[in-house]
Amino acid sequence: QLNFPRSPALDSYGNLYTSDTENFRVQKVIAGPQIIIPAGQLTGTVTLSALVDNVTEGDETVILTPSAIGATLASNAALNITIGTVTPSAPTGITATATSQTTASVAFTAPANNGGSAITGYTVTSSPGGLTASGTSSPITVSGLSFNTNYTFTVTAQNAQGTGAASTASNTINLIDTDGDGVTDTQELIDNTNPYEPCDYKPASQVRANASAAWLAADCDGDGAPNSVDTNPLNYAVGGYPGVIPTIGTRAYTNYFALADNDSDGIPNSMECYGSSATCADFDGDGIPNYLDTDSDGDGLLDATERNVDTDGDGDANYLDLDTDNDGILDRTELLYDTDNDGIPNLRDLDSDGDGIPDTNEATENFRGGVDTNTDGRLDDITDLNGNGLADYLEKKPLGIPDTDKDGKADYLDLDSDADGIADRTEGGGDSDADKIPNFRDMDSDNDWLADGIEGINDADKDGIPNYLDADSDGDTIPDSWEGANKCATCTTLQDADNDGWDDRKQYAKDNTAIDTDKDGTPDFLDADSDNDTIEDRIELGGDMDADEIANFRDDDSDGDKILDIIETAVDTDKDGMADYQDLDSDNDTISDSIETDVDTDKDGVRDFRDEDSDNDKILDKNEKAIDTDGDGKLNFQDTDSDGDGIPDAIETEVDTDKDGKLDYVDTDSDGDGIPDAIEAGANPEKPLDTDKDGQ
Q1: Are residues 573 and 610 in contact, defined by beta-carbon separation less than 8 angstroms?
Q2: Rg (alpha carbons) of the chain, rounded to whole number
Q3: CA neighbor of 282 nearest in space, from 267, 292, 268, 271
Q4: pTM higher than 0.70, yes or no?
């Protein structure tokens, strides 16, 4: 036992020493026995054996902590004791942080000593005001704080024995609102807003009742309504007075008016007003400034749809552009339809029907000529001095938007503008016949007097040119205009008073059909033998040999000799370079074919018009000629007894026995003896008598 210990000291190993004054010694202090009381046990029995140290003393004691009944217990004794509990010690590390306009968060560390009993809660108390808040752990939020007041906070802990001592006070917080906007400076720092700018705050953090009179009288967003009556002082588009525009350059203009979108079209006010400080532009002159007008250019399309983009690159945003794609067709005409389903609305589509022909061409009347010579889908001349997005020259006379076939669908939306059965994509925008009417609009693209719809897109002669553009579809050298429509040879220019691309002398009608001379179902312009005379059109050609106003290729008797071409054919019997169907004297016997005809008098298989001796009397037709010596109705070249003396011409022959200038076959008194040959011939003229047997 230490007797009056003095001057405790620690050595370098952490051992504790003290002077034992009365015993005149220094002793090392050795920890005594430790008694562990299980948690929650308040009573128990402690038994101590004799304590042994260097000196045996009878009054050694054990100090029990915390204090208990029988605070000391002599050695070699046993005692039933009750362990007593106390309130917790004070929490530590108190830190206060403002969390809103009227609240603060107080954080702390739990007490080191819970007083022998579990802590059941904590209470935070403000000073001044004595506002309290409770919780079971850190941190705890205190509400109801006031502006412009310095606050500190203390924290107490509670257990089964009650509330422990209060902690030391926290740091000081002050809910100051320097700019008077109803949001404390502390909150503005949290919100990352400017505590010195009354119009820079988060509305969710504002307590309007705490705002200053100056702030209430101000007009943060410049909409003409003071903050006190403005339902949203930071939104120009809400709660203000119509038409009030803040001065350009001011915070109200830059931060609120310029960024606002009063007409909810997705285009900020600053863009729609062109930066004007006093008045905003009214593009369509309807009395509503653009920033309040949902259709600023009055084209029937919402600005929100047209948007602040510049499709045609003309410097005019679509919502202020009357012709968004610069194709010469007003947006109010094209609208948002997507005719060709390509995902591009017509008002932005340079080829609305997807036929390969730009809208600029299809919407242009023929008389204007080319307005898009490079066929890029945009007008060549885009001069626009008034900046409305529409070319100036179209202001006075807009494009006519033709509907060539009058089907109620404008050409730029019509896949077959002229209703000829040939798609515009196939016909294209060219002008094959140079009549100033583009093919897609021209019902007769090659000016052959045959409708394109009749000629079609096939290529009959395989020359690489479709029939509707081919001047000679069957390649027979006869123009389709002659074969198909019987065009007059002198009709060399187009007469088209109604400007429909169809020659007025052969005006188109729905029942127009191409000529089919031989009725074989193939029109002449595609028929190799139009009149079915076995002579190809390319041989007969388009002349009119007999001047009967029927072209040879269509004339079944081209030379008008009363012998059909199909009989005469294209042979050249007399080798004179002229085919029989064109030769008036096919056998060159001086007797026209029309006289000889196609009979075969002598039944030798050669028709008379080709037979040099039609009656086979051994006298050539060219000698007998087409006379009727005996007046029997038979011409000599077909009469086997030309002089009617009963003696065949073949016997009389071409001699002139009596030298009277008449050949015997036409001389009724061949020997000039005054006795007719008919008498001298005897009973059988075909075997004339030779009385003297002299061979004559």
Answers
A1: yes
A2: 64
A3: 292
A4: no
